[in-house]
Every structure is written in structure tokens, then in C-alpha cells.
Amino acid sequence: MRRVLVVGGPGTGKTTLARRLSATLDVPHHDLDRIAYEPTAPDAPFWQWTRVPAERRLVAAQILPATAGWVADGLYAGWTAPLRDAADTVVWLDLPAFVAVPRVLRRAAVHRLRGGDDWDLASIRRVARGARAYRTRPAATPADLAARDSANSTRTLALFLASSESRLIRCRSAADVRAVLSCSR
After folding, report:
1. Which of 13, 62, 71, 89 has the most CB within a 10 Å radius?
2. 123: domain CATH number?
């Protein structure tokens, strides 16, 4: 396990798992949100960042696999195909909404209590709704994915990851995630 793509819906623990895997494997971690969005000002909170055009995202996704080892995480299908194809392991965090939604709310509350400004009330609502709807949205077309990130869904990921079956670990519970961490040691 040296090149790992971690995918899943909002609040499933993608970044937490990716950071732990990165530290365990001693490879760089790449948060795909930082490729998909860019700040509007040097200190702008994340909810004010703007969406990077699809072509620039794809270029970044083509450059990253050229490195010897990495862990990348995000909820994105479509433009992340080069990462999916280059990964020796793809971890899909497919946790239920009753786990994901409270995690989103807890993450936002803790961030705000610590003085952070990445979460305003509208973004908290949007991400919590997205975490719930992620499991019920229809499969997105490539045009849908290019137009809006909210088109990503469980059904979309299932189609996107079908070609990765032999390298895919699908985690549906916290126990499954712990098993991935123990295998990486």
C-alpha cells in the first residue's frame, strides 16, 4: 500500500483516515478539496473559496500519480480518474447517513468553538444535507460532475469505482475502517 485513494461522502472520515494512512505509510497526504477549490483571498474561509475549472483539476490529478507514494482523499468522481487508475489501493468509506451527518455537525461545531471561520451556518446546513442526500442521489453523468460537485453520490461512486474492484476496500462501518488502518501497519 503506497498509493492510496480514499473516497466517500461528506462526514465519512476521509481526511482523518487519509492523514493516518499518510503518517503510517510515510507518504504525502493530498486533500483533493485543496485541488478542487481555491481561496478568493489569502485568509478566506473555505466556504468562500471558488471552484477550480475542471481542466485544472484534471491536470493536477494527472500530475500527482507520477510520484512514488501518496494518499489522496475526496468525494470526487470524474476528474479523479487518473488517481483511481494509479492507486494500488482504493478505500471507499461508505458509512451510513446516521453516522455521517452527526460527524459533519460535530466537526463544524468544534471548528467554530476553536475560533475557526471555515464553517458558516449556510455551509453547515449545505454539507449536512449533502451528507444525507449523498446516499439517495441518482448516478451523475460526466456533464453533471463537471458542472457541480454536489452531483457526486453513492451511485456515482459505485459506477466510477467498478473498474477498481480488485484494488477496492469498501468500508461500511467503523470496524471496517479500523481494519484498513491495522492492515497498513
Report:
1. 71
2. 3.40.50.300
